[in-house]
Amino acid sequence: MKLTILGGGGFRVPLVHRALLDDARREAPGRCTELTLYDTDSARLKVIANVLAEQAEGIPGAPVVTAVEDLDDALRGADFVFSAIRVGGTAGRVRDERIPLGELVLGQETVGAGGVLYGLRTIPVALHIAERVAALAPDAWVINFTNPAGMVTEAMSAVLGERVIGICDSPVGLVRRAARAAGADPNRVGFDYVGLNHLGWLRSLTQDGRDLLPGLLADEAALSSFEEGKLFGARWLQALGSLPNEYLHYYYFRRETLHAVLESPETRGEFLDQQQGGFFAAAAAEPERAYALWERTRLHREETYMAESRAASGGWQRDSCDLDGGGYDQVALALMRAVARDERTRLILNVRNGTTVPALDPGAIIETVCEVSARGARPLPCAPLREDQLGLMLQLKAVERAAIDAAVGENHGAALRAMALHPLVDSPAVAARILDRACQACPV
Questions:
Q1: Each residue of 223-239: pLDDT tens digit?
Q2: H or E stretch including 89?
């Protein structure tokens, strides 16, 4: 089986490779035997190839890794395409976050004004990729991790239909942490999760037919033992009656989070720009140390994840069990295995809505529990959404669709609508200034 990774020079590619090596050690049937890396940055591509080579040393059956700089060459013969591109690089993320902050509006990679800017820049490139996949590898499955994942997956689905599936590591991490806090085995629990990418709620957690979530919500000590409990606080979670995705902290605690970001000496994008720049420069200069440098940098990256939100909620360190980096790579590999081997499993994925949320268009991409098989991912029925949950989903879906319209048709009115309708942007005048500044900073 051939897997192609678009954005193959990305920092987290070794995590996917590590999961593939686990399959090789187990001699798993239908495992990946060819891994093709594609990236527009040849220097980063070379560094990551060095990291993978060292990581695979001494492992029989490790996938043969090939690095290419031509998109069509990367796609030909692919069974699965993993899209994890970053249009504009980390420098683009810095602009996406800093420009809104200049207007005292939250700047974040996928949420708020920053997410809209990132989507506007990324969607045209994602659509080009979708068109080349349709032309050169029409039977391939595209697994999209490119952010904003829901928006980008929806744009690509206009070309690829159900053969593009979006993934995110936040929901699986939430389920895993909540299960541990409730005293359950994360691998045995059932769950009801629904929303949009970076905007969803865990609304039940069942084991042996019993819902563990009410007991967990009533136990303040248990709630304070894991990340989401610390982020949102027991009082608010008990009022909600559910466990929100960590990114909802930006919505529920927007004042506190904005204050923490403004007080921080650097944005997350600036931190990663400096950190990754340092890593790639050092690894290029000392290729024999590439893997060790990557592992050290990865751990520091995980330790500082969502630092501003943690500061806004009292300041605390991440648990050691959440620092292993296993998340989106595990979701991607579980999805690939289920499709390639027709091994039925349930995963939280970004897929077409169908009839799952009746208030949304059937073609709208939502993030929910799916049953996966060789036929792809099918969203399962879920309990009705509460009005507050549905209201946020409808508003954010309007933002996503306006951004897609703007990116596809170069529609400035749609771009303004996408920016101004976002609940974290408080004025059309502010939205217009953010868009104007973004165009001046990056006119292309």
A1: 999 999 999 999 999 99
A2: helix 89-101
